[in-house]
Structure formats: structure tokens, C-alpha cells
Amino acid sequence: MEQQEQEGTGNNNECLVCRVTYSIYSNFPPMPSAMALNVETDEFFPQDVLLSYSTGHQMAAALGYSWACNCRGRKALAALTAKDRIHDEQYTLKDADGRVMRDTYYTVRLPSGALVHGITDKLGRTKRYRTSGAQSIYIYLGHTQEA
Ligand SMILES: [Zn+2]
For residue 3, how far is its CA from the centre of ligand 1 (angstroms)? Predict the structure, then answer.
């Protein structure tokens, strides 16, 4: 059902979702310890992997909302507001190769700004954290005092 995927052809052919995604993340500085969240699978992966993508569409796919994308013949503009719900979630940390990161120190920055330390379990899972939106929680590797 997909047409051709043209990589690295710039933003002009991308929909608003993809262009906004690209404009946000293409300006992020490299942060080796920062993790990005795939909201579809609740899995965190290295943010630097996200930043390595050359199109907003690839970024949106990695973040788990490419289904909101409208630039490949898809329709789904309501998507981005679907996260306005209470989440009581636990997350899985994966490295750049997709392997789960077990027994790994991490720091969660909650929507309140509070930093909470934890260690993943044998399956790479964090503790459960309650948020009001999937986008409002951040995870960093290590136990940091500021994030
Ligand atoms: Zn798009």
C-alpha cells in the first residue's frame, strides 16, 4: 500500500506532522544519554538514533506516530491528540541495536520536572510512572541530578 519511499529528499514533500517533527528534532543537540519514546510500543530508544534520521517521516515512524502522517497517502490528522489521556505506564529501554537494556540505571523526568532514579529489570523495563500524556515523560541513561 506504500508508494516509493524517497529518503533524504528534504521536507517539501512531507506533511505537516512530518515537517513539524523534523523541525523539532533536527534542532536538538546531540545528547548521548537521552532516550526517545516510541509511543506505539512504549519503548525508549537512544535519542541520537532519532536525530540521525534525515526526514521527519523516519522520525515520526521511530516515535510511533507515522500513522498520523498524511504525506504518503494516509489520512489521520486526529492522531496527535489521542495521547491526551492518563498513562500509567512502564517502559522498555532498548539500545541502538534494539536489544533490551536490563539492569540499567536511568533517570525519569516527570511532567512536574521531578527527577526519579531507577534501574530497569531483567526485561529492560522501568517502574510504572503515571503521566497525563505519553510525550510528557523523558528518560535519560544514568542517575543524573539535572536533565
Ligand atoms: Zn508525513
Answer: 13
- Cα 39 from Cα 91, distance rounded (Å): 10
How many Å lie between the centroid of ligand 1 and the Cα of residue 117? Answer: 35
Digit-coded pLDDT (tens) for 72-114: 554 433 333 434 455 677 889 999 888 999 999 999 888 788 8
CA of 116 to the centre of ligand 1 (A): 34
**Nearest 5 degrees, angle CA 100-CA 124-CA 118?**
135
Tell me, what amino acid is at 54?
S
| Residue ranges of domains in the chain | 16-141
**If you measure from the C-alpha of residue 68 to the centroid of ligand 1, how many angstroms do you get, rounded to a whole number?**
7
What whole-number distance in Å separates Cα of residue 53 and Cα of residue 104? Answer: 26
Q: How far is the CA of 132 from the centre of ligand 1 (A)?
A: 25
Q: What is the pLDDT of residue 84?
A: 45
